[in-house]
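Protocol step 4 of 6: structure prediction from sequence.
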Amino acid sequence: MIIKCKLKLILKPGKATPTPPIAPILGQYGLNLMNFCNKFNLLTKNIFFDFIHVKIIVFQNLEYEILIGLESLTNDIKKNMNIEKFSKKPGIEKIIFNNFEIINIIAKNRIIFEKKKISSIRKMILGTLISMGIFYE
């Protein structure tokens, strides 16, 4: 089969509806929105995360595959570090933490799906933390 396009979305599991933001993205490729939403909701009915990464591979004959990923990294960080909101001014207002074990826990959860070295995943997590105003000491 010839691949027409690959799409990456962040969606709520089990709650897909044929309305924006899904409809404009998938509609431009000619996919049946109701079939997609029903299939996605069936696949994700037992997933209890807030948001998950979804990859959609659309083929030339308008068939598609749905690949379910992990919870978004920011939500994972919020849960593991017990943070309700990140810094509104990341370069100016800083949140300091000193427990590196939290980064290891997050990295070990993501290593199965990221297909990278654990050190690369730790660097990715630290970069995300810095961009949200959280610094490690």
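Step 5 (inspection) to follow. The two ends are 51 Å apart (CA to CA).
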